Fold this protein.
Amino acid sequence: MQNVLAASLLSLVCLQADIAQAQPTSPAVRPALTISVAKPQWLSMGVTIRANGNIAAWQEASVGSQVGGLRMADVRVNVGDVVKRDQVLAMFATDTVLADLAVQKAQEAEAIAALAEAQANAGRARSLKNSGALSAQQISQYLTAEQTAKARLEAVRAQLQVQNLRLQYAEVRAPDDGVISARQVSVGAVVPVGTELFKMVRQRRLEWRADVVSEELDRIRVGMPVRVHPASFGKEATPLMGKVRVIGPTVDMQARTAVVYVDLPRIENDTPVVRAGMFASGEFELGNTRVLTLPQESVVMRDGFSYVFKVRDTARVSQVRVEVGRRLNTRVEILKGVEESDVIAESGAGFLNNDDAIAIDSTQSPTTSVAK
């Protein structure tokens, strides 16, 4: 009986062994993706205030007519011409002015002669004042005639000066160095005094008028550097470097913004093209701070949130939500969610899911350097 029981047990053990050999072994877990990884780096990143606004002329001078009733004889400049101070921009016909000037010169000669006669009569009257040859009334008349002749000569000379000024103002000259921005006169036109003939941008200086929200005004200082990106610039173009000249004294009651005036550098050769009236964006540079950054490829946007994938020791990844800040070239500031010691998936992060198994590219090692 014992022999039968032992044989049965031996048969059962052999059967279990056969069953175990017949069952397939579970396969090893295969990685979902081969990726490269990166470690967070500390970088120095500038703190900025972004704003939008328009480019305008620093000062736009209006060149008007100082004489009236004259015909425009010559216009020597056009829109876009660069001019110097006192350069002749246009000329009025001076025929009538020269004729009036000749009349005034003749009247001056006549007044000089009349004054000489009055002075001679007054001199004789003074010498005969105590002789009784002339009455007091006659002496007074001669002296009064002398004063009247003097006043007449002064009036004629004043009119002569007016005609000389008209002749001088017949040449329209530039009040300052600059560039002509508008021309509103043509040859042959007869314009009244005070009519605007030209507009010019003084000294070819432009400024950026940035609209800054009132909450940010306390952080802006006069002389602060500003990077300005005019609308004509491409994405890769170097921005213009300006400086804050003045902060507007008032805040718009509707938009709650104030205008900050930023001086732009003078562009001598008109390259790149920057024009008054052009839209521009810019950043006020407040200083630099050290921030923790990751490559832009490591940050994945899903459902309106930013995520990264931390690599665990088990060669799996964990999806972690992070808060991002500014961008510097190809790197992104990480405000929350990542530590300096973490290893983060870089290439291929957009194809990963939480708890995916991964393999790290053997030709690439995690970035361990920390920017100073």
User: Anything to note?
Assistant: Residues 62-93+170-203 form a domain with the OB fold (Dihydrolipoamide Acetyltransferase, E2P) fold (CATH 2.40.50.100). Helices lie at 2-22, 95-127, 136-169. The chain has four domains: 33-45+290-360, 49-59+204-288, 62-93+170-203, 94-168.
